[in-house]
Specification:
Helices cover about 40% and strands about 20% of the residues. It is α+β, with helices and mostly antiparallel strands. A hairpin with a 6-residue loop joins strand 2 and strand 3. The protein has 2 helices and 3 strands; from the N terminus they run βαββα. The chain has helices spanning about 10-20, 45-60, and strands spanning about 1-5, 25-30, 35-40. It is globular.
Length: about 70
């Protein structure tokens, strides 16, 4: 599971279209006041996730955020 979060509605719409065109399974979420939007990608292997995120960041000229491990 990979989640991409943005506060920009314009970027969110571009990201949404990008992932929709890739035929990926994902869900979207918005905060109550629409200040944060997220897209969560599902059913990808580690290599598929790495590949799609690399292509995604290059396509939108973004910098990857470091991954953080969540403590249980």
């Amino acid at each position: 599971m990979t989640t991409i979060i943005t506060s920009s509605t314009t970027l969110f719409n571009k990201f949404f279209t990008y992932f929709q065109n890739k035929d990926l399974r994902f869900t979207i979420d918005h905060t109550l006041n629409n200040t944060h939007h997220s897209i969560t990608l599902y059913d990808l292997t580690f290599h598929q996730t790495s590949s799609i995120i690399t292509l995604f960041t290059k396509h939108f000229h973004l910098t990857q955020s470091p991954a953080f491990a969540l403590a249980a």
